Amino acid sequence: MLRSSQHAILRQAQRNLSSSDITFILENGRRIRSGGVLHVFLGRKDIPYNESRNLERLEGTVLVMDDSYTDPVLITVYRNRRALKSIRSKQKYLRASKSIYRLAKNRDLSESASSKRSM
Question: Do the domain assignments include residue 101?
Fold first, then answer.
């Protein structure tokens, strides 16, 4: 079972996507890990020929999912027929900002200084 965020539920309603549409996209779409999340893109070639007449409205739909949990979470849904290029150009993994590294480094320095004082 796919859990959805409140944002995803709102966007799904705005884009007129049913839960069966989401299931179809999950089953037939291309999965691309980029930017620290999983993108599921449904292109023209991903729609079976015999169903293309009924489902061509889904072409270009992208599901953005966080699958780091045991149950994947749908974060948002959008449509962009040229989204594949922008998805592929994103970073493969989410990088931590420099400030996080500075905080960790300062904490390590303060811990080492306090351990030297106690000696």
Answer: no
Note the pLDDT of residue 115: 55
* Side chain identity at residue 45, one-letter code: K
Taking the C-alpha atoms of residue 96 and residue 75, their distance in angstroms, rounded to an integer, is 20
Q: Which positions of the chain have pLDDT values less than 70?
A: 1, 85, 88-119
79-104 confidence digits (pLDDT tens)? 888 777 677 666 555 555 545 555 55
Please tell me whether residue 67 adopts helix, strand or coil conformation.
Answer: coil
| Residue 102 is assigned to a structural domain of this protein | no
Q: How many domains does the chain have?
A: 1
Query: Do residues 90 and 35 touch, judged by C-beta distance below 8 A?
Result: yes
Extended strands (E) in the chain: 3-4, 30-34, 37-42, 61-66, 73-79
CA distance 8 to 14: 10
